Amino acid sequence: MKFTFNPAPNLRQKQSTKRIMLELMLGLLAVFAFSVYFYYDEYGTDVALQCVLLMLISLAVALVTETLWALFTRQKLIPFLSGSFGWITAIILTMMCPVTITPYALGIATFFSIFIGKLLFGGFGQNIFNPAAFGRAVIFASFAGATTDVITAVTPTTLMATEYNWLVVDPNMISKLMTQVGGLDNLFVGFYPGAIGETSALMIMIVGVILALRKVIDWRIPVIYLCAVFVFASVIAITAGMSDWLWYPLFHLFSGGVMFGAVFMLTDPVTSPTSAQGKCIFALGAAILTVLIRVKGNYPEGVLYSILIMNMLTPMIEKATDGKQLVVRKKSAVIFAVIAALGAGCVSLAASVIEPAKEKVKEKVFVKLDDPYLSTLQANIDSTVDNGDGTTTYIVTAQGFAAVEGPNMPNYDHPTDPNVYEIIVNRSDNTVKSVRVTKMSDTEYIGDKVESPKFLSQFEGLSLASEFEIEVNDAVTGATYTTKSVVRAVLEVRNALGF
Amino acid sequence: MQFTKLKGGTKGKVNAMSLFKGPMHQHIPGHKDLTETKEVRVLKPQQWVYIPLYAGHSTDFEILVHEGEHVYAGTKIAVCNDRIVVPIYASVSGTVRGVQKLMHATLKTQDHLIIESDGKYEMRQAFAPLDYQRAGKEELVEFMMNAGIVGCGGAGFPAYMKYKNVKDIKKLIINAVECEPYITADYKMVQSNLDLMVTGVLAMKKMAQAQSCVIAIKKTHPELIKQVQEAVANIADVTVVSVPDVYPMGWERTLVRHLMQADYKRLPSEIGAIVNNATTAIAFGNALINGMPIIEKTVTVSGDGIKEPCNVRVPVGMQVKEITEACGGYTDEEVKLIAGGPMMGKTIVNDQFVVDRASDALTVLKIVPYKDVACLRCGQCSDHCPAGLQPVRIAQSLNAKDKAMMERLSVMDCIECGLCTYVCPSRLDVTENVRKAKRQMQLAKK
Ligand code: SF4
Ligand code: SF4
Fold first, then answer.
1. Domain residue ranges in chain B
2. Which of A49, A104, A165, B351 has the most CB atoms around it within 10 Å of its CB?
3. Per-residue pLDDT tens over the stretch A324-343
């Protein structure tokens, strides 16, 4: 009979770290599956397969890196791999990247995540930064251009950052923005392009709730983070004077990496504080930074850097909340309140100094008669018909866009053909009665612009005896050329009349 | 059975949601059904009993009998003459055969007085009974001291200490919670000694001059609640209160926190509470009515490592080997034999030790190997620690050999309840790390 010694206690609960990681992986894969479906539905099988391919590459790189490390450091391979959880990092990293990323850039980033972000720090449990966030930052820093063009749509956050300054007050622009992103409900459900795993706030939320109930992630971090982002964004909206402001905090919550970060990244236990109080402060800090970086830094994405910064502050938070919980609780509540107040101050300050986005007034472009380019275009009056009612109809051929593109451009329908116009003139006072396009050979979308009645009506009543100028319908280069073609035709008539 | 288990499963959620602190307790599957419904087996030692000369932290005993002397069950054989007075009584009739150092259930070697049993179990009243209704407060405290009533909550601390110089006691709390898994001895004792308990409780209430008294029992034992409720139905100011099935609800501090929504620094009497175990009340009642000290114990023998889990009633000083044999023996060639419950009890590497006055269980478990991984830093240990400590940070301070940090983390307040190890998903020996830190602090203080 043998009696084994073991320090008390002699019972263990069922949940193990391995099981936690497994359930986390299942949660991630559920979100990933949704994304793959979205890409399949929207862009076809190729793009969906691209998502899967990227994931596989990242997983493979993670596995190889960890295997080599185990071999070099002479650790037993299987126990090492099963206790290192590199696959989680690979999955999260892939899901943080857009589908347009090159497999090469993703591979390198995975290597950096695992090797520098984790192994060099001493392996699982010792790393300071969230390895996946670390890898993503590497991509931002070194591979910004390493994208493929499987799809070219703009993500809502990029749109918000580049065109709307992360702050819109004008109701017209707000509704324009909403049409561009397909409405808040679409943002929430997730049918829009972005980082592979970040699009569906709804899906992530459902998975998050399940994981929190199963104690795989701590509920405090996502709850506080999301609530705080909502509150701080609301503060901005109100300070900036939005009348109908609820959409604004919701846009913050549903777009970009906020939801994904809340559920899958900030909750990484290794890189967040261990105590309940510490977790609360950590999540609050991350929320303030996310909103500030988005609005003030005007980046598409504030989540990533806020996570990395808070990772760095974790040891400090831990130290501040050391002690007996019932004592520290009061201290923590004070710290929390102070940080929250500071955060509110910062964001409202930021909101009051930032210019809300304004509708860009397009510069008007005019074609004048002394435009040197006009003389390079050839024109010819094909026929002159007296209509008998005091007007004369001229049929004029004039070179258009084709003159620029040259005769050998392959992709266009009528590369060398000039355009033909019908110009009717009142002879009594030499004013233009109307201009019509009878044959338009310029490229579609460009030629169209001059066929619009609004554009052509500019000519009506124009006195050919004096100088005139014509406004270009849309300041696209090609459109300008076509406009000049019309002006050239009218000029030809003017010349014929001897002015 | 299925039904009670299911109910038990939801109990851990009580107060689990709090922003700035963890729940500070945890539901643990109790496995109480293994022994709760079975009859208590009465066992007698074959020949030898070994009475531990040990109480609380005191081992300075004056032995009152000499080798070869005949004793009865109830004969006073030794008395401790430290600041704290604790007499020790023989548990069987027979002949004194000397003193020997043996391994004690606390894992230390202690002096044991050996008695060769004559198999007759002749009893002698150890001291004169006392009518608590006539006796004064001081008289009762004195009586409790001389009867050798020790706290039955494991530590074996003399019970009368709690009643010396106390005033303004609002609540006397009788602890019948038994939060350790497997153990049902307390329930069995209460069920079969309701009258003695009521007497003990009333005497204690008088000693404490408490305004009211509550008897705390786990929600998951409605039968027991009903029985005790009936027993105290006609007594003013004594009520039964049900508490959630979480560990360590039976720890004084957790129980007081739950019942009084308040915390204290060192002793519950600071906030007007005295806590005593139900078995202590029974022992006291027995002393008052029958003039007998604790010479017998009801002990739960349970776990998946023993063939016939059950409760046994044995004389103090009976060897564990004899008890486990009477319970059908072990289920495996290699087991963990725990003096006490699986959470706080110590594994002992032989079965030669004996049942002491503070023993209430022997837990025998099969060996389940666990693979540990690196600390996940999940903070579950901190969330659940009933003392509000942060075991994961303590482990870090131990690694860094940072005494100042240990001090800041109040390492010494750990009660070694074992919950941090229980919840740790990385399967680390978290409690053991805290113990090591405690030891370092103790060494540094000396
Ligand atoms: S063993 Fe100590 S540190 Fe661990 S949970 Fe219990 S009291 Fe807290
Ligand atoms: S419960 Fe275990 S894994 Fe979690 S923080 Fe504590 S020691 Fe680390």
1. 14-28+374-444, 36-42+296-366, 48-117, 137-290
2. B351
3. 888 888 888 999 999 999 99
